[in-house]
Design goal:
By secondary structure, this protein is of the alpha/beta class. It has 2 domains: 137 residues, Aspartate/ornithine carbamoyltransferase (Rossmann fold, 3-Layer(aba) Sandwich), CATH 3.40.50.1370; 151 residues, Aspartate/ornithine carbamoyltransferase (Rossmann fold). Helices cover 44% and strands 12% of the residues. The chain has 13 helices and 9 strands. The strands form 2 sheets. A 5-stranded parallel β-sheet has the order 7-6-5-8-9. Helix 2 crosses helix 13. Phosphoric acid mono(formamide)ester binds next to helix 2.
Amino acid sequence: MNLKGRNFITLLDFTPQEIGHLIDLSLKLKQEKKEGKAHRHLEGKNIVLLFQKDSTRTRCAFEVGALDLGMGVTYLGPSGSQMGKKESVKDTARVLGRMYDGIEFRGYLHSDVEQLAEHGGVPVWNGLTDMYHPTQILADFLTVKENFGKLEGIKFSYVGDARNNMGNSLMIGSAKMGLHFTAVAPRELWPDASLVEHCREIAKETGATITLTEDTIAGTKDADVIYTDVWVSMGEPKDVWHSRIKQLSDYQVDKAMMDNASKNAIFMHCLPAFHGIDTEIGIQIANEFKEEHPRVKNGEMEVTDEVIESPQSVVFEEAENRMHTIKAVMLATMSDSYE
Ligand code: CP
Ligand code: NVA
């Protein structure tokens, strides 16, 4: 398996074997790190992280992963570079590609990360766009594999905004790796029909199934994994909260939903999650909507505090796995001699 020089923009570009290799490599790197065994395979190289949107996990995963691999890192935040303001994405790519050995991008337009990849001349990694969040899926699937020992045949229910970057990417990942993916969402928040069609084509080869339903009970029955994400994603206008709460409050993951899933089901969330009134937005939303939508009165939106704090919740293992999987992506795309 040689992925040297490849970009990591969407899982659509990777075969099930390649995705499986990245997950296995992550596990190896995770074990080495736990054993205190250094893996500075990329000493002397440098990468740049371009963030148009905020981040905790993705930024830290790239930074710690790069440092563990022996690399230098530059972080350019939402207001820290000329890109988009005085300089085009194409020019930025041609400049950064001459100084760095790899470029991470988090932003709005998926076409921006594609342009960076086209003109950078070095591996480009997608740290989230409005359309896809592929590094997250590797961490999620590593977590599923650690919990169930396999990916194939897992019943995976994604509940909430199924046409955002997470809904799209989990559906693609599931199709590639043979999971039974169910999007549980109101019809207007189902993924784009052409992407569903594409995933169903992939699924024919892998044994996966792709189901879309509005029914929260049928859609989560006996599921191995219940997964959700924020109801309003970064970059969406604030006034969308009103309609989104209305559309999704019946899709909140609560104990009754977890009880409807399999006895050994796990709860997953890419994080950050709204499950209480300990964030600025959580307080604002709870105050504004508590009369109209009692379910959100305590700042609990996509998931209740009870579920995310329960033993079934693996969200922090999942968050840790961001680092091991992102490290694997950098290593595999920058080197062919790490075995
Ligand atoms: N899950 C995730 O991408 O988190 P951050 O926004 O903190 O990077
Ligand atoms: N859908 C979320 C994912 C955050 C990791 C967003 O784009 O804000």
